[in-house]
Request: fold
Amino acid sequence: TYAIYSRQALDLLEQVVEFLRGYKKQRSQLALDKYIEVTPRNGKYSDEMKSRREQFGENFFDITT
Reply:
């Protein structure tokens, strides 16, 4: 089984985003634009970063159809 995570997944997503449609394309573009900004490499969140990450999640799942 082959698995990719985090930044590797973003690299793959960048290659396929142009072929997606609808909300999947919008969510993918948001992830590509903002994921690295709101995700620290060491996984430790300050209060501000945690708030920004939660807002990112809300914005991501608000994109529907």
